[in-house]
Design goal:
Blueprint (H helix, E strand, L loop, with lengths): L2 H26 L1 H33 L1
Helix pairs in contact: 1-2
């Protein structure tokens, strides 16, 4: 696996962590959710987009 593959895996993990932290924040509610809930979901969408781009580039580089 090349550097692009490792970056893709790292981006997947970052997306998963952001998603879990955001979901736990929504579940627990309170000040964290009020302050960071929307920011966490926006960060997830951005990181998910980066992950998809990296994944496509990785798959194209393997062909």
């Amino acid at each position: 696996m090349n550097t692009l593959g490792y970056l893709t895996v790292a981006a997947m993990l970052v997306t998963a962590v952001i998603l879990v932290v955001g979901m736990v924040g929504f579940y627990r509610g309170g000040e964290f959710n009020e302050r960071y809930g929307n920011i966490m979901m926006r960060a997830r969408v951005i990181s998910q987009g980066v992950t998809v781009v990296l994944l496509v580039l990785f798959l194209l580089s393997q062909a």
